[in-house]
Amino acid sequence: MRGLYEILLYWNKNLKVFIAEIPALGAKVDGLTYEEALKKAESHIYHQMHGRFC
């Protein structure tokens, strides 16, 4: 199964973390850096596609 997923990345001033949203999956993850949040989002997508949960 292959798919393309939009990832929205932004800084949350209140929490002081980057948020990565995956709208198609209704998921949000966070990270202390942009790269960490993106990596977590990619991992979440991978696990959803392969039937495992993060």
TrEMBL record:
Superkingdom of origin: Bacteria
This protein's name: HicB-like antitoxin of toxin-antitoxin system domain-containing protein
